[in-house]
């Protein structure tokens, strides 16, 4: 790896490992790896998972969580100017300019605590937003045992930063929700993180900022952001939590500020007038549109919404 900064953990940056040294602000990520999600498959189902970066290239992953708001990792912060859409970012991807970005005020570059950044788009995203997990995760059977779906991008040449990769997904359960002693790469995780350890399956360089989705009441919901893991992505990894506590303290207040003029923004309340078809607009209404009603809700997965065309990546035409 051509990393100029000694680190004990590997940040899983979009087109390489994104590292912000202690005391630094807004440094560009280092392009160090060509790896993608390990043990996964090409993904066409999660249109709200996007690439984030600048100058016509992505270097981290992210998720559209409201009409003009994208969530990604705190260590990806700095110079983010554009969000890219599509299964294959190398095929003249549609993109939207970033108006402003905000990193979690409690972000710690040493421990990667509160590893979250929110981006405000200059215009509406051309895809549906993903619903948030608006409940508190705990170390019980509701959250430890069920599968989570991890999604992210890789590249064909991570050093040169050329050749955007395919969006890929992998599914497996998690091991612990912080605070906890977990061993492995982190040793311990704090209350803003959760941890997984699954042989032959992992997130890796190319996935920082990408989501972990958990299905609740038939709808997949954004539960975490890919943060860091072992090198070479064969042992374990850590996600930044995006459940109730982070929503109430950071995510929701920022969405409310970014989209104050949008009555259909993600706010925990379904506004029925927002969704008249053909695609879901208010992510808080997803569970109301999982049947055949003329409104496609991509987040409905158990069972899938019959209004969504099979194989459709959810991008608006």
TrEMBL record:
Q: Where is the Peptidase S1 domain?
A: 37-260
Gene Ontology terms, MF aspect: serine-type endopeptidase activity
- Supply the Gene3D superfamilies for this chain: Trypsin-like serine proteases (2.40.10.10)
**InterPro entries according to UniProt:** CLIP_Serine_Protease, Peptidase_S1_PA, Peptidase_S1_PA_chymotrypsin, Peptidase_S1A, Trypsin_dom, TRYPSIN_HIS
Pfam families, per database record: Trypsin (PF00089)
- Signal peptide as annotated in the record: none
For this protein, the record's PANTHER family field holds:
EG:BACR7A4.3 PROTEIN-RELATED, PTHR24260
Q: What is this protein called?
A: Trypsin
Q: Which organism is it from?
A: Sorangium cellulosum (Polyangium cellulosum)
